[in-house]
Design goal:
Blueprint lengths: L4 H5 L1 H20 L13 E7 L5 H16 L5 E9 L2 E8 L5 H15 L12 E5 L18 H17 L23 H7 L3 H11 L11 H12 L1
Length: 235
Amino acid sequence: MNISSPFIKRPVATALLTFGVALAGIVGFSLLPVSPMPRVDMPTISVNAGIPGASPETMATTVATPLERSLGRIAGITEMTSSSALGSANIVLQFDLSRDIDGAARDVQAAIAAARVDLPSTLRNNPTYRKTNPADAPVMILALTSKVMSKAQMFDFASTTLAQKFSQVNGIGTVSVGGSSLPGVRVELNPMALNKYGVGLEQVRTAIASTNANLEKRHSRRRRPAMADQHQRSG
């Protein structure tokens, strides 16, 4: 008996059967629970520390190295990578799959506290850490352009306003801002005046570092004319 003879004698049924098999295959392919890159939650913790204005070499030698020595004593670490940039240092710790991420976070916190005595005094805030997943990638990247605002103004707006608003959205894990720098102030010193009053350069640097802070502006435009008149009268 020829197997293909029934299909040849009934072409309409053969066409419908072929269409049904093809349709079932398309539907089944879309429902297959197979991913080309399986999602694996790796126990990973990122440690960050920052000193405003410090060079990458300073961050690597005075901040990243002591943290690496202290964090390297934690059990279960399979990989530790660090990177230093202008004013910041980042250390990524990857643990074994059998390691509990919450227990690893407690060990990281204890290691940061133990390394605090070896960190420079200019590091005002303690290093921070957060749980991360290397399988996750940024799902949205926004670029800001302006014809009336400078890069420093746009960076300040993005870091103080947009980043905070985005962080409050449900489901967002981390918001990072990059591509520019915060506005800075250049200080010029007169060596003759410093010598006259017996003030050293290190004293000036310490005074600026201890009193430097970001404060909100409280002056309004209505008060400026009165302040100008008072200045003219006193002069």
